Amino acid sequence: MPLGQPGLARPSAGNKLRLPSLCLVTLCLGCGDDALSGRGDTGSDVADVHDTADSADTADSTDTRNPDSADTRDPDSADTRDPDSADTRVDDTRDAGPDTTVTPDTTVTPDTTETSDTEVQSDPTCPPATCAAAPPALGAVSDWRHPVGTGFVTLQGSARHRGRDLYLREGDAQWALAKFAYGPFDDDLVDEDIDIYLLRDCGSTSPTWELLGTATTTDDGDHGTVEGIADSGGWVYFPIPGDKTLGLGRHRLRFVVRGDHSQTDQFIEVLPADARFVVSDVDGTQTETETAEFTAVFFGTDPAAQPHGAEALSAFAARGYHIFYLTARPEWLAARTHEWLDAHGYPPGLVHTTLTFTGSFGGSAETFKTDEMNALLARFPGSIVVGIGNTASDEAAYHNVGLPSGSAYLYQFDPASAGTRVDDYARLVPVARALPNRCD
Ligand SMILES: [Ca+2]
Q: How many angstroms is it from 352 CA to the middle of ligand 1?
């Protein structure tokens, strides 16, 4: 019987076969934003979070955000923002090729308080660690708890597990979070054991993995929502024990499925309250085209990176700005996104995809990114210094969270009113170097 045929699925809520969804993902993969839908709602009514985020930190471990909620706004509605606001387009007149000695272009100086803040504190977590390490030593695989039912799941295809990265402040609840699934239909691994290892401080204090504990994967709805993650089944929700609390810095967790030793990682960065971030979209913004990942997944190719993209983000990271890769890709591309960034020389950072099987585009991508950045700003008020994207939904999302026009860079894209066009990422290197050095 062909894999994925309904007769193979055991009667578990975690064994949903999602043929209609596969059709959808075929349509939307790599179209993380506006490729299919056109311009999204501009969100001009959204309050400036930079002005309001100084109120109490509202992020907690029971975040009830619903990333699946439908975007009910009209994507075709007219742009009501001020059409006369400055479009500070930066034309690229230089030859291609790395050039970090370019004269700073004053038209792309970030319009943020960072440049005038002489009281900026150094960030003890700077520079970010790469976390490169050999995997933990493992013994023999264990028997599955459910040999027959789990066998049907693993037969459906290769593992596509993924951890959920977290930026945390000291004192926040700390959770090991990852989802386990197999095959093209993303079939959940339910009620099986996962060993969780920790490379504390990315190995800078000790190069050995420590065993944090063992957890069992959920079925749909078993667990309450944590960090905005509703339980869609196959999840591990593991509170990090108090005697193993993570300190300031970057940490890597490795989840190992006992039954077959398939693995995935989660990165957690515990940061000071005044940490600062650069947010970047991935598809088309860092990959060669908006749809390159679509081609790569189905034809086994590797998307090229945009010229100087890694160089520009590395310049920000080197000065202590944490890189948040925010993409509306499907959830099951999270691990692959990390791998692509590493392979193409991007600085260490955290990756957030959507929490859905299909990903988001157009107006729903704008909503997803706006919600994600608002959650970050609730935990770290006023912390987003620069945003980088390549579509109207990116422009709108950065506008929605109050990022000044001069700090929202749109790659080879003319913003309607609330961003700055940049045609060569080498132009952003001197922008990064003009920011206060938080690594001092
Ligand atoms: Ca994009």
A: 14
- For the chain, the domain total comes to 2
Clarify whether residues 264 and 290 are in a common domain: no
50 Cα–ligand 1 center, Å: 24
Compute the distance from residue 297 Cα to the ligand 1 centre, in Å.
Answer: 16
Q: Which of 208, 240, 271 is the last residue of a domain?
A: 271
User: % helix / strand / coil in the chain, to the nearest 5?
Assistant: 25, 20, 55
Round to whole Å and give the CA distance between 226 and 206. 29
Residues 107 and 155 reside in one and the same domain: no
Same domain, 101 and 182: no
Question: pLDDT digit string (tens) for 74-96?
Answer: 333 333 333 333 334 443 333 33
Flag whether 109 is in a domain.
yes
Q: What is the dihedral of CA 59, 61, 63, 67, to 10 degrees?
A: 110
CATH number for the domain that contains residue 351:
3.40.50.1000
CA of 291 to the centre of ligand 1 (A): 9
Report CA(365)–ligand 1 centroid distance (Å): 10
Ligand 1 centroid from CA 280, angstroms: 9
Interval between CA 433 and ligand 1 midpoint (Å): 25
Output the CA 401–ligand 1 centroid distance in Å. 18
Distance from the CA of 410 to the center of ligand 1, in angstroms?
10
Q: Which helix (H) or strand (E) holds 188?
A: strand 187-188
> Are residues 255 and 277 both part of a single domain?
no
Domain boundary, last residue among 231, 251, 271: 271
- Which strands, in side-by-side order, build the sheet including 408-411? 349-352, 322-326, 277-280, 384-389, 408-411, 420-422
Distance 183 CA to ligand 1 centre (A): 26
Q: What is the average pLDDT score of the chain?
A: 79
> Residue 318 is encoded by which pair of tokens?
């080197």
Whole domain around residue 40: which residue ranges?
27-123+273-433
Distance 263 CA to ligand 1 centre (A): 28
- Contact by Cβ (8 Å): 238, 226: no
> What spacing in Å lies between the alpha carbon of 355 and ligand 1's midpoint?
17
Residues 298 and 185 in one domain: no
- pLDDT 10s digits, 289-310: 998 998 888 888 899 999 999 9
- Asked if residue 365 belongs to a domain, the reply is yes
Q: Smallest Cα–Cα separation from 392: which of 78, 108, 112?
A: 78
The most confident of the ranges 43-47, 308-312, 330-334 is: 308-312
DSSP designation for 137 = P
5 CA to centre of ligand 1 in angstroms: 34
Same domain (yes/no): 164, 244:
yes
Residue 22 lies in a domain: no
CA of 389 to the centre of ligand 1 (A): 6
Comparing 37-46, 180-189, 355-364, the range with the smallest average pLDDT is 37-46
For residues 176 and 46, state if they share a domain: no
